[in-house]
Amino acid sequence: IRLGGTVQIQPGLLRDFYLIQIPAKGYADIEYGGKHIRITPSQWSLLSPVEPVLIGWSPDCELLEIKIERAALEAMLVELAGVTVVEPLEFDLEFKREGGRAASLHQLVSYICNQLELPRSPIDRTAACSRLEDFLLAMVLDSQHHNYSEAMDQQNSGAGQLQPRFIQRAIDYMESHADETVRLADIAAASGRSVRVLNAAFRKYQHLTPMEFLRDRRLDNARAALQKATGNSVTVTQVAHQWRLHHLGRFARNYKRRFGESPSTTLKRSRSRGN
Description:
It is built from eleven helices and eight strands. By secondary structure, the protein is α+β, with helices and mostly antiparallel strands. It has two domains: 150 residues, Jelly Rolls; 113 residues, Orthogonal Bundle (Arc Repressor Mutant, subunit A), CATH 1.10.10. The chain has a four-stranded antiparallel sheet with strand order 1-6-3-4, with no helix packed on it.
């Protein structure tokens, strides 16, 4: 936005969106909830829809404004922190561009702006744009202190009891499709997150990759099938193929590592009980 003169507006309460203001030139004076700050190219503002706002821009002010839907940001907060939003999400009013997490946010914003100026950008694609929006929301929540920051820090430290909901979506998908051919991309699509984000989250909360988690679920299902087997109608090979564990040597090694015995031993014990 290039204003070209002294401008003052009083939008009052923003209500349904958050507003990041990033001056490239000049300054702006902001009054918010009894506080007054001046933002410059090295110091930005993040306005929350909690208190009335008054903004005055200098004649030479040029700035970028990022409008973030309140519902989308609160939904991301719930997913990242595992909390119920009772009190309105409110950020500290000002933060500096350089240093710490704000610098990473600035780099992301610069990248998005540069991409938007290209005639054909990868972020024009719907899927890429959606993932980038999620990343931006998460970065905003992580970069600037707010009244739920402690809950997020607790969750990120592993002390929180709830994992993000998208991990459970991935688990539900894997459990319901364990006897089918499943690719990592399929799991990511079901979770609503990128492969990279999903891998990182699984390592953090499950201490496994998604495909390792799926392998273990299949091993559990194979063991249950072998334990129920009676007579000679069921074989180890049949059960392994049923649960998409096609490499029999690897299946036997992983099975023994997980359960302390070979699959054939489990089957023999089940047959002896049946007899």
